[in-house]
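Dock S-adenosylmethionine; give full complex structure.
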Amino acid sequence: MSESAILKLSFPSLKDPSPFDPFCPMTLLTARLLTALQLGSVWRSRQMQTTMRPKREKLKPKDEAAYFVSSSKDKDGFDVQYINSFKGRGVFSTCHFQRGAFLLEYRGDVINKQEYERRLKIYHDALKVFMFEFRHNGKQLCVDAAREDGSLGRLVNDDHLNPNSRMKTITVNGQPHLCLFAVKDITPGEEITYNYGNSEWPWRVKVSAHTDQPETEEPMASLSSSLEPQKCKHVVLHSSMSSIEKCAHCLGPYAARKWSGLKCKDKLDLTDSDSEESEAAICDPSPCTKNQEPDEFSEDSIDGSGEGTSQGTSIIL
Ligand SMILES: C[S@@+](CC[C@H](N)C(=O)[O-])C[C@H]1O[C@@H](n2cnc3c(N)ncnc32)[C@H](O)[C@@H]1O
């Protein structure tokens, strides 16, 4: 056999390829090309899947609020921490929230004025603080969040100086709901707060004689002599039900002005010289009526002022 014939056997001519010969260089080349093309198209389709995958639409804050209201669930990104015996528990962020974002619903029973008044009569003071009275479509309504249902909105504390959220009403399936929206960017670890309104909330008063100092910066309010802190002989016990501390003598809760040194309302405790005057002051709910109002949600009305509203909203102590 000639040398060229041997070469031809080992390396079949490109001019004469056999399409069925698996060793034919053209066949191998074609196969490689096909594989490359296939791989390319798989890669391209993967790319398409990742880049062209329909983006999950970011819900608008109001729609997100409606979603969580309907599902009766709290949004992720918060935890509850015990702050101190004075303030009780608070809600803290565990992630970033942008200004305007929906945060939490103030969840509870939505009740009318009659039911609100009925419950007010039978509720202990410790429960009354969870009743959030507001006006909606000309009606006086209340969200009663007295029940410990594990929801977080009811545990958000007051800050009238520098709140990072604001209460607003949204309507879901014809029912009004109270929801908190961020009024500024919130970073992880921040306590969520809103302005309870312009009432004389007792914790806004600095009481130096109290063992658990309030953490407010506002100036000392003038207290009448009957409200001298040192007159309080109560020993605070922590309630497992809520932050509302109980009197060690009578196990009743302190009333609205406990931080001012007033006694708890429970008659069992009248073992010392507290006057009827002080007792009456405790029972008068008017200084503790919230006059802030959760306005109907609108995207451009996110601010922390708690002002510029026409209807009254109250948490009544
Ligand atoms: C709706 S509850 C909030 C949750 C409450 N901290 C708890 O642990 O149950 C309202 C009560 O929280 C307390 N509170 C709210 N804001 C406060 C503040 N800025 N300083 C001190 N206590 C506050 C008062 O006892 C008030 O009656």
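Observed: The chain has two domains: 61-199+289-315, 201-288.
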